[in-house]
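User: Predict the structure for this protein chain, please.
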Amino acid sequence: MTSINYRYSVRGKWAETSNETPAAIGAAFLKTLDALSGVDPLFAGWQVFRNLQIAEDGQPRQVPLDAARKRIAQIVESGVARDDYDEREPIYGYSAVATAGVRGPRYVTLSVHTTLNPDVGLKFGEHNIASDLSIVTYPLFKAALLAISAAGSVQWSYAQASRNDVVKVPMDLAPGVPAFRIDTAAQVPLDPTFPDSIFHVPWIVYLSADRAAGLTLAREVLTEHVPDGGLLMSAATERLDPMNLEHVRRARILAETLIACTGVTS
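Assistant: Here is the predicted structure, written as structure tokens:
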């Protein structure tokens, strides 16, 4: 297993929500939280973030899920996009965030963004803290991905590994003056030509029935159809290791499939 710092997450493309109200977005957000709560005790005790405009009353920035249910439309409304003058810009969507657990490698964050490119993300660990590998299991991530996909009418979704670090590259600032620059680390050191995309190193991929229509299935990856007619593809049925050549070979197939089916790279 690799010693490189990787963070594992699940992400998905929500159905277009440009005409949805904060109440409808909030209902979908709650549905997703409830679906995840039924997957594993890891997703118990959700705390929903309140926007600063709401939190100025001196109350906690986060409220338990049950309390948030009663005011979810207000919470989503307060998460509206704003311009440089702090004016509301609903055309650019809304955001909602909930967390579970104690901050650290087992910290779980669910976020939805109904921008012009609406998405949902489930992250394990924190920005500068890798995921706790003891919770990164195929059954858990597969179940979480399917729960998110069904609850939010997702067009596609994927579980992925992404490097959680950077590298220092030596450079000459001036003759005789050593220096270095900070670069994003290569996602897959074993394969310098691995596709560079938002999908990073895909592990498990879900495609809706529409997206999967006409797709030629690769024999090298495990595939199965799910009840909604969508397609599930997996690079490994154990924890994905980006330093395992066989895992990388199959993950590359998933990355190329996602790019071809979605047209999305960066």
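The two ends are 28 Å apart (CA to CA).
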